[in-house]
Amino acid sequence: MTGSDAARxxxxxxxxGERFVLRLPVEExxxxxxxxxxxxxxxxPAEFDEAAWTTVRDEALGCTKCDLCRxxxxxxxxxxxxxxxxxxxxxxxxxxxxxxGEAFVGRAGQLLTKILAAIGFGRDEVFITNVLKCRPPDNxxxxxxxxxxxxxxxxxxxxxxxxxxxxxxGRHAARTLLGVDSTMGAMRGRVFRYEEVPxxxxxxxxxxxxxxxxxxxxxxxVQLAREIYDEEMERRGKKIYPNVDFFSASVYTTxxxxxDLFTPIFAMSRVTGxxxxxxxxxxxxxxxxxxxxxxxxxxxxxxPLENR
Length: 308
Ligand code: URA
Prior knowledge:
- By secondary structure, the protein is an alpha/beta fold.
- Among the domains are: 1-37; 66-233, Uracil-DNA Glycosylase, subunit E, CATH 3.40.470.
- The protein has twelve helices and six strands.
- A six-stranded mixed β-sheet has the order 1-3-2-4-6-5, with helices on both faces.
- The site of uracil has 12 residues, from α5.
């Protein structure tokens, strides 16, 4: 076990609210000159902790910590797979989610599915959840005491999944995770960190349904999230390319070209970048990709919270 493994175990245990961490035998904890103690080395992917996941989920499914337990039909824990590098976090379940027990299945959810597809993810390749796991009556804004009761579940989901990037949807999710009181316009288009995990905030799909002008900035934000995902997954040495078939690659490239026609100045670079990226995904889906070397950040703008 390396020093970084130990540090990660400790950080995760802390976040899961565990009071005791098992001490390993001395020889397993020993750090030799051949194996320097490097806190920044996260090249070994942590194993997904199925038992911890099930424990936290079962706890949430029976939660009675706030008033929403009396009005909910069911707890909406989340949808997709926890064995993923990307987590999408919305505000709270709505009517359809409350009925079906799945996150983002209404109109906003259908749009979210399309947005994710446009950056190469199927719904079953990501984990989608909300700050609140129960529906507020009449879809009211989450109240502070409800957020306070529910946020620990989200924190533990994040700790167990250990995503490469978190994408928040809407003001409430971003404000909750970043602990700030900013506007969506001020929070989007940047990279923050939540418990060391890169976080990109963008508009809620429901806002896009009301105001299509928000589609362009949302599009930029999700592309940024995708870029960070690729970079971080490459750094972790994991396979980064989801299944993109030839047809989808062509459709998304055409859509990208159509969107870029509205901004002629950037059109050429964006169009070529898009095409190359999507066809690279298509090609890599067919090849066994060698474990990539981490080449360092490619000039991403990562801003610590205190610089806001
Ligand atoms: N809006 C959200 O924020 N979450 C859902 O799950 C559905 C709609």
